[in-house]
């Protein structure tokens, strides 16, 4: 095991230990401690991505775009950590929108590397996106989500994250069919990471717009979120 592989594994272990501490340890409560702890957790998933890239000598567009997504996610973490309202909330949503666009482009670049003749968007992806968007619209109506003036911004964000999910599943499917040496781990990290991200945002939507704010919902939101980012960052090591 070389130095960078050890650093990659150490960063993974540190994230696995620190996130529960951030969520449950009394030391991280009060004042600016929660914000600082959240930013440290965000810095760790960036380090996981950086160390994964170096350890695997993965300097393809996929790795750089994924790192860009991780960096913009950390900006979103900061803004939402400061306040879940006003300009900070808007800047947070915009940061995550850019992050998901970069993730999507990373998946597109990896798909193109696997099959250069593949179209940018195929029929299955378009159908999947429309179905997911329809399910989102129906669930928003049934759950009576009240987004007020933020409806337009949240709709754009929802479209972007659903596109990210569709592209992630397409890439996972392509890696599975190609049968590359790392496909079992790569597909698991990629698919699970994208799904957990959507679950995290769904929980956050219920918390913010459906009046279901509780400690359990907050823990579920943040645990699935950091789980998603950790899995996506680690995928850089395996998707080359």
What does this structure look like?
- With 240 residues, the protein is mostly helical.
- It has one domain (3-238).
- It is built from eight helices and no strands.
- The protein has helices at 3-24, 33-55, 61-82, 86-114, 123-142, 151-178, 183-209, 215-238.
- α1 (3-24) runs antiparallel to α8 (215-238) and α3 (61-82) runs antiparallel to α8 (215-238).
- The protein is globular, with a radius of gyration of 18 Å.
- The two termini are 19 Å apart.
- The model has no long low-confidence stretch (mean pLDDT 94).
Identify the notable features of this structure and list them briefly:
240 residues; mainly alpha; 8 helices; globular; single chain
What's the average pLDDT?
Answer: 94
Instruction: State the share of residues found in helices, binned by percent.
Output: over 70%
User: Can you count the helices?
Assistant: 8
Query: In what range is the share of β-strand residues?
Result: under 5%
Tally of DSSP β-strands: 0
Shape verdict: globular
Detail the poorly predicted runs: none
H-E string: HHHHHHHH
Give the number of domains: 1
Which radius of gyration do the C-alpha atoms yield?
18 Å
Largest sheet: none
N-to-C terminal Cα separation, in Å? Answer: 19 Å
Tell me the structural class: mainly alpha
Brief synopsis:
This protein has helices at 3-24, 33-55, 61-82, 86-114, 123-142, 151-178, 183-209, 215-238.
List the helices and strands and how they pair.
Layout: H1 3-24, H2 33-55, H3 61-82, H4 86-114, H5 123-142, H6 151-178, H7 183-209, H8 215-238
